[in-house]
Write a structure and sequence with these properties.
about 325 residues, Rossmann fold, 10 helices, six-stranded mixed β-sheet, binds pyridoxal-5'-phosphate, alpha/beta
């Protein structure tokens, strides 16, 4: 029995788990399945909504009327938070990494439309953002407001519950479809989705190996981050869990030029999957991870997915991040 904390119902759940029928035909012996977490909503969509169900519940429990969070200018997490704030009557203050663009596009446009207050911190000062967030909290306190700071991507011991719960949902999907996938694949950026799934498969005794493809940082970073978050989760929620059971696996090699910047192979993959099955990936997260997964599958017995017959790719959303990169798609 887990000590579940309070949770809001913000995501459209359960999301479908369906076979990627046409694309899977390019493999003779592997079926790719998609867990459609891009369908947790329309404007409020993707993986972040599952985490925010727990983080915003915590904010309300603490009597907060303001949410402060942070991320890149095109952060999907910040967009989801901004819109949920508008829906729930909470003020949202975003700290975004970089300069203010002359014209807001994609996620940033939605942030502004939803009425979020936005502060920009240049890249060179980004490491000071936790301090900046504390100063903002203090400023709100002097105005008789109470602000919760949700860290990047809602990846902390509270947000971890989002993908623990998603793993329980996957367990029900697998039972219904009589599916025993060897691998569950996901993009990892701030680590909370990978962490929740990696912990979740142990908690719900699912044999599948969670494989994460990093779109920032490296494998060592994600191992340390997940161990830290799970340790804090144990302490905060009084859960006993043996950390040595965690099978943390991050596959490097598909980050490309860097976070948010993809090579042409990723744009080709996005186009191929849209074309074959009408499923849309994004160049920052899901496109890179899907490209990595397919490249490893093509290596067969020498790849990270050796022995795969059924693979579940968790589609974590990100569609609004496609539009600011439209110039990178090649059409004949
Ligand atoms: C679309 C999308 N996919 C995947 C991720 C990675 O999830 P996490 O930050 O939990 O590692 C993010 C957020 O960073 C995202 O916005």
């Amino acid at each position: 029995m887990l000590n579940w904390p309070r949770r809001l119902q913000l995501a459209q759940l359960p999301t479908p788990l369906t076979k990627l029928t046409n694309f899977s035909k390019s493999f003779s012996d592997v079926n790719i399945w998609i867990k459609h977490d891009e369908l947790t909503g329309l404007e409020v969509s993707g993986n972040k909504v599952r985490k925010l169900e727990f983080c915003i519940a915590e904010a309300l429990e603490q009597g907060c009327n303001t949410l402060i969070t942070c991320g890149g200018v095109q952060s999907n997490h910040c967009r989801a938070t901004a819109i949920l704030g508008a829906r729930l009557g909470l003020k949202v203050h975003l700290i975004l990494r970089g300069e203010r663009p002359t014209v807001p596009e994609g996620n940033l446009l939605l942030d502004y439309l939803a009425g979020a207050e936005i502060s920009y911190l240049p890249q060179r000062e980004w490491k000071t953002h936790p301090q900046f967030a504390r100063e903002l909290q203090e400023k709100y306190r002097t105005q008789n407001s109470n602000a919760l700071f949700i860290p990047t991507g809602a990846s902390d011991e509270i947000g971890l519950w989002g993908y623990i719960a998603a793993t329980e949902e996957l367990q029900a999907d697998f039972a219904r479809l009589k599916l025993t996938p060897e691998f569950i694949v996901v993009a990892t950026g701030s680590g909370g989705t990978q962490g929740g799934l990696t912990l979740g498969v142990e908690l719900f005794a699912i044999k599948s190996q969670v494989l994460a493809f990093n779109v920032s940082d490296d494998a060592a970073y994600f191992t340390a981050k997940i161990l830290e978050d799970v340790t804090l989760w144990q302490q905060r929620y009084k859960e006993s869990f043996d950390l040595s059971r965690l099978r943390i696996k991050t596959i490097e090699g598909y980050l490309g030029p860097g976070y948010g910047v993809a090579g042409k192979e990723v744009f080709e993959t996005i186009r191929n999957v849209a074309n074959s099955d009408g499923v849309f990936l994004d160049p920052v997260y899901t496109g890179k991870a899907f490209h990595g997964m397919v490249s490893e599958l093509r290596k067969g017995a020498n790849g990270a997915l050796a022995g795969a017959r059924n693979v579940v790719f968790v589609h974590t959303g990100g569609l609004f991040g496609v539009f600011p990169q439209q110039q990178n798609f090649q059409f004949d």
